[in-house]
Amino acid sequence: METGGLADGRQIHYFNTAPGAGRASFADKRDLGGRVSAGEIRYDVLRDEWVAVSAGRSDRPTLPVACPLCPSDGEELTEIPAPGYEVAVFENRFPSFGGFGEPGPLPPAEVTGMENAAPASGRCEVVCFSDDHDSSLADLSPERVALIVRALAQRTADLSARGDVAQVFCFENRGVEIGVTLHHPHGQIYGYPYVTPQTRKHLDANKRHRAATGRDLFDDILESERGGPRVIAENEHWIAFTPYAARWPFEVHLYPDRRFADLAELPEEYIDSFAPLYLEVLKRCDNAYPGEQMPYMAGWHQAPVGEGREFGRLRLELVSIRRGPGKVKFLASSESVMGGWVHDLGPETSAALLQKDSPKGAL
Amino acid sequence: METGGLADGRQIHYFNTAPGAGRASFADKRDLGGRVSAGEIRYDVLRDEWVAVSAGRSDRPTLPVACPLCPSDGEELTEIPAPGYEVAVFENRFPSFGGFGEPGPLPPAEVTGMENAAPASGRCEVVCFSDDHDSSLADLSPERVALIVRALAQRTADLSARGDVAQVFCFENRGVEIGVTLHHPHGQIYGYPYVTPQTRKHLDANKRHRAATGRDLFDDILESERGGPRVIAENEHWIAFTPYAARWPFEVHLYPDRRFADLAELPEEYIDSFAPLYLEVLKRCDNAYPGEQMPYMAGWHQAPVGEGREFGRLRLELVSIRRGPGKVKFLASSESVMGGWVHDLGPETSAALLQKDSPKGAL
Fold first, then answer.
1. Which of A68, A248, B124, B211 has the maximal Cβ count within 10 Å?
2. Do the chains contact at B192 and A340, CB–CB below 8 Å?
3. Per-residue pLDDT for B359 more than 80?
4. Where are the alpha helices (DSSP H) in chain B?
5. pLDDT tens digits, residue range A9-18?
6. Which residues bind Zn(2+) (chains A, B) (predicted)?
7. Cβ(A317)–Cβ(A299) under 8 Å?
């Protein structure tokens, strides 16, 4: 990892397959003004959850003229000062969390009264997967995918050590159907100053399961799914399956075959074996409805940095709103307001669409 | 309420301002075949939640030729056999819950193992607000809105007595932006066989708050919001405000000034005073960005039928993904996968857009 700076003081990190690429030495020649900081987080008394308020983000550009994730090229100055790169990670210019320069405080563990706010500490980063604007994660080589995972692992370790990050979430949103406006292949990292609501549910469920059975819940899920009707792909270290109680029309969980708390704990051989399996899953997603790239959200569930860490488990979750050719599922009142989900296809039907042989012979 | 039957055995209820309209006497002359039942619910071990699997729904028509919510007219046979109506409620032909004819069992309170399913008991109903296809709830008279609320109250009472409904949710989805394909003004009712995840959070929060303070959480929220910067509208019995920790770009909560568990408990004068206030809120939403009807999801939070009922409170929540002129918020990985919300406008900014005087003088 080589670390450089951007014109407004943000950090940029280049991840290279060979040392000494010297990319961090290129200066950012733009005049960006001061750095933009996140706002605050507010405590939702009805849900016992923190919500970020990030008013500055509504002014962020929706369709920039030049792609800010391409390498800088002569007078065309972008977020990446170097003229080329493999994988680059930089602080988001319009962050929902952090951007204060120094780490901020964690929110209070106990709150009273109806209005409680704290600074939106933490960090938001952008992860560029390739300097080829027209590429896509699914088109990259296994070596590149492994380099991306190594970058995420390093960032997870670094953000976990900041002191104002309670949980690191690495994810990719892909597809205009889910509002992605920057088509350059990229992901993001959120270093939240709190443990997210979904993670708290998972930790609580595992805690209860261990107390009741003496076994780890994730081990039992793996044992139950392995060899079953919803397995999509597997190799020596990883298994990908649609879970029994899936809620998205397409939903794939990728587990390593044993427990790691987060990407920073993942051994080299697990990173290397993850890459081809994930590429196969992505190709199967794109082949589910021939001719239609599948929009998706894919994120790494990681154990929190502090309390509850021993109940967490690293795995990746990929979900899609695609529910048929040209059709997407909208999350309407039942899902959005009440959390009551309805699976329209049935988990086995959607798994079968991912299990079928590739019509293009691409697998 | 007059109750009739549809060709496949489903019930239809007509709500009229005057008795003896005789609408239920019109027979459904269609050949629909047998009734379509919901599938099952599956227990999600990682979240301690039930998820409905309703594979049959993916075959439901997306754009029927004739509107099924218009009254039947000669040879044009719809879901409403009568030639005209005020408010009509009928069982959804493609239900996510119920449709078995008789009430089904409630899911087990305790589950073990990794795969647990139960019948998707309960009920799904469609609520037609007017027989005028081109109308909209916001365009109706206060008297009609009050009749709709009376219909919802009656249905809440009836569904609560079934024995296979744990919670009744009455809601409206409006706008192509959130996937609504039937543009006839209508809402829906879900009688869930379980208490929804969001409601469980609210009940838990109130339970903790009462234990810690001796006061009701909803009373404290009302006291805190009243007279504050995010109040949108109020009258003798109701207050509408954007909450302190709102998460949707536009979010309005409408509370009665004292506690009712559900719509069935609401006194007549509260129903009559709700109607004009809600119409004002809807008009303010449509005026936030002139010329753009606001897509929204609006639902009544009601206390569960059984356990936890004493901690619940009736109120309406209206949320919108509109975040600017021609712009909508997409719920991407942070919200969808982790439950980590970011408010892009800021609750006070969005409240101010609803507080401003109507540019059309329509209020």
1. A248
2. yes
3. no
4. 142-160, 197-213, 217-225, 268-288, 333, 347-355
5. 999 999 999 8
6. 67, 70, 133, 184
7. yes
